[in-house]
């Protein structure tokens, strides 16, 4: 005779062990079941029937003994192969229905096909057809709690049939039903047996068992009676069963895209159902991402502003002035001769003397105090400072000590308001001058910068007519090549030492100040980013928390999914997808809120610079957080034992 479908040989099963005392529930059960049989396993409560069914359905492993399925020792199969058997060979019908509460009737029926990789359209059509066949055509979209017990049991039968249901394992299928529903369900099972499904019915009720063509009686973990193999079974042939199954399942290999779509759909459903809790947990991630974006934008913006302000005065200039201390000792001065000498140093493009001092400007009967400066005609070029109106004085004006003045925006505003200042005569410390130009404002929008509170005039005029001082306050030295700043500075230093024979002068350059400023704001940015990172971490812990809770709450769902053929990696994927989706939504909300807050700050005049890199980075961090912190709970879910998970609450 051919290989039997199921062969149990001296199967023993003990619970407990470890801390709990070990209790043996099955004491050496041996039986043989052929394909197409309709077998009832009957016994009183506690006799070990459910334990036996879990072993038969590969939901659990025996303590000892051998279980051969189509001649193959099940003990030699790994977790994935067992999942494949549960998916392709078995269909479970439980006393408590074990439907997934968050999914509709049709979605529940579809679950086994999802893990078998059936395309969505085919899956839906098949589930719909099965539900209609079982008299539930109007109830597709109902949730389990909207269905009666009999209807739920019919949904679970449809689910058992979804992947073919070659072997239907029904554990007290009518146990929780009223008698009318029980009769209907039994009639259905009868039909399935007649149609060639192998049916193993577990019951404590002898009347129910009597409907089977073979009755096996179990008492205290032992088979005490067996009416013998059913000779009239519909399908006599067992051979090639496993191969047939393998062929059937190989034709539809699961696609990753389909799996992911399914996982996302389910994850979204769960999130939506728990949306309030999810939203609260997500606050960490939202705040983290938003603060990364805003803080980096603030840091970047203020850095940019500082750089702009500094470079407005020529980032590559070297400034040389007398050293204060030496000046007291022996009147250290920088002279115009020094300036001329420095002009010959390689890489020096220009040397502009600056003679500074406060002046009172009188126009009509208005007096206004401003910073005064005697400069050369190279001023616009040296300080990158354009003339907004009129013109700057020329080298000729310098030579002739022309009494011309170019005024800053704030001076213009104070003295002339809406009048045209060009060509007007003003008194600088009582000396008459003619206004020939207005400097462009250095202030952001309005002329409110201190730099704008100034007037400039030819150096020669300033030194002889205004201040009576021939020595520049400092020299502004412009370089041809900013990259050679250090060498040039050293060369000037050597030259000046040679000329003065002592260090009674000092030099500084804006580049080093810019570098220092940039370093400061980089440190600040780093600090801000660190704060943001901490809140992302807190967000990640939130995700982990929600996922751990979810796994605990949904242990039974995990068991159901495993019983219907989910592999460990399916479960892992599902829970990881949930974690990632949660953080994805959090990350997205964070980006939006970050932009919103940033926008408001911009409206209040803060110089924000949003960086796409920061946004993408923060978003990626959020995703990564979900992945990292979701992994542990997801793995915990995937590693659950099917029977343990099924029994969980
Ligand atoms: P039946 O389905 O025939 O009512 P079960 O197979 O459910 O019986 O249980 C048989 C015996 O095994 C019972 O005494 C029960 O207490 C014990 N048992 C079942 N499951 C477990 C378990 N997970 N841990 C410990 N004991 C168990
Ligand atoms: Mg039971």
UniProtKB/TrEMBL annotation:
Provide the primary localization: membrane
A GO CC annotation given for this chain? plasma membrane
Q: Where are the transmembrane segments?
A: 279-299, 526-548, 579-602, 608-631
Positions of the ABC transporter domain: 6-245
One GO term of the biological process aspect = response to antibiotic
Where found in the cell?
Answer: Cell inner membrane
Its membrane topology is listed as:
Multi-pass membrane protein
Identify the keywords attached in UniProt to this record, alphabetized. Answer: Antibiotic resistance, ATP-binding, Cell inner membrane, Cell membrane, Membrane, Nucleotide-binding, Translocase, Transmembrane, Transmembrane helix, Transport
Q: Which InterPro entries match?
A: AAA+_ATPase, ABC3_permease_C, ABC_transporter-like_ATP-bd, ABC_transporter-like_CS, MacB-like_ATP-bd, MacB_PCD, Macrolide_Exporter_MacB, P-loop_NTPase
Question: Would the keyword 4Fe-4S be found if you checked this record's keyword annotation?
Answer: no
The UniProt family comment states: Belongs to the ABC transporter superfamily. Macrolide exporter (TC 3.A.1.122) family.
Q: What is this protein called?
A: Pyoverdine export ATP-binding/permease protein PvdT
- Protein source organism: Microvirgula aerodenitrificans
């Amino acid at each position: 005779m051919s290989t039997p479908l199921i062969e149990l040989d001296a199967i023993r099963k003990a619970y407990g062990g470890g801390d709990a005392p070990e209790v043996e529930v099955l004491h050496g059960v041996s039986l043989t079941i052929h394909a197409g049989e309709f077998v009832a396993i009957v016994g009183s409560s506690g006799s070990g029937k459910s334990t036996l069914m879990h072993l038969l359905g590969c939901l659990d492993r025996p303590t000892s003994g051998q279980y051969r399925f189509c001649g193959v020792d099940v003990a030699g199969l790994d977790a994935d192969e067992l999942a494949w058997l549960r998916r392709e060979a078995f269909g479970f019908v439980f006393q408590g229905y074990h439907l997934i509460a968050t999914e509709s009737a049709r979605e529940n029926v579809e679950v086994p096909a999802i893990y078998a990789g059936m395309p969505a359209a085919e899956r839906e059509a098949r589930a719909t057809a099965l539900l209609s066949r079982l008299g539930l055509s109007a109830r597709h979209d109902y949730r389990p709690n909207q269905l009666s017990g009999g209807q739920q049991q019919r949904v679970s039968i449809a689910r058992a049939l979804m992947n073919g249901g070659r072997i239907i394992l029904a554990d007290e299928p009518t146990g929780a039903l009223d008698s009318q529903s029980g009769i209907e369900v039994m009639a259905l099972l009868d039909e399935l047996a007649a149609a060639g499904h192998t049916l193993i019915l577990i019951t404590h009720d002898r009347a129910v068992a009597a409907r089977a063509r073979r009755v096996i009686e179990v008492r205290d973990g032992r088979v005490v009676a067996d009416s013998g193999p059913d000779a009239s079974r519909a399908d006599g042939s067992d051979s090639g069963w496993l191969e047939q199954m393998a062929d059937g399942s190989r034709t539809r290999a699961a696609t990753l895209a389909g799996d992911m779509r399914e996982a996302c759909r389910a994850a979204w459903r769960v999130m939506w159902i728990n949306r309030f809790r999810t939203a609260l947990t997500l606050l960490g991630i939202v705040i983290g991402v938003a603060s990364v974006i805003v803080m980096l934008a603030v840091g970047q913006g203020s850095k940019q502003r500082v750089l702009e302000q500094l470079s407005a005065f020529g980032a590559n200039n070297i400034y040389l002035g007398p050293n204060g201390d030496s000046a007291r000792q022996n009147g250290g001065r920088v002279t115009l001769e020094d300036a001329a000498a420095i002009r010959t140093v390689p890489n020096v493009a220009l040397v502009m003397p600056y003679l500074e001092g406060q002046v009172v400007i009188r126009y009509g009967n208005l007096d206004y105090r401003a910073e005064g400066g005697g400069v050369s005609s190279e001023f616009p070029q040296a300080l990158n400072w354009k003339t907004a109106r009129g013109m700057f004085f020329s080298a000729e004006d310098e030579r002739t000590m022309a009494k011309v003045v170019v005024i800053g925006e704030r001076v213009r505003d104070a003295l002339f308001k809406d009048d045209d200042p060009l060509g007007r005569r003003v008194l600088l410390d009582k000396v008459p001058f003619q206004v020939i130009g207005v400097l462009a404002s250095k202030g952001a929008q309005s002329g409110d910068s201190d730099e704008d509170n100034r007037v400039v005039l030819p150096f020669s005029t300033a030194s002889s007519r205004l201040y009576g001082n021939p020595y520049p306050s400092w020299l502004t030295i412009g370089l041809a090549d900013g990259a050679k700043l250090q060498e040039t500075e050293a060369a000037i230093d050597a030259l000046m030492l040679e000329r003065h024979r002592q260090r009674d002068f000092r030099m500084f350059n804006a580049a080093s100040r810019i570098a220092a400023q940039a370093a400061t704001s980089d440190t600040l940015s780093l600090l801000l980013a660190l704060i943001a990172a901490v809140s992302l971490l807190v967000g990640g812990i939130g995700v982990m928390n929600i996922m751990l809770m979810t796994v605990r709450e949904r242990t039974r769902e995990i068991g159901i999914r495993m019983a219907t053929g989910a592999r460990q990696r399916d479960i892992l994927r599902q829970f990881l997808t949930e974690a990632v989706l949660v953080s994805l939504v959090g990350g997205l909300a964070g980006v939006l809120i970050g932009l919103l807050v940033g926008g408001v700050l911009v409206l209040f005049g803060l110089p924000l610079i949003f960086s796409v890199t920061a946004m993408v980075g923060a978003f990626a961090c959020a995703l990564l957080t979900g992945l990292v912190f979701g992994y542990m709970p997801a793995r915990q879910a995937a590693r659950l034992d099917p029977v343990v998970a099924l029994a969980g609450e």
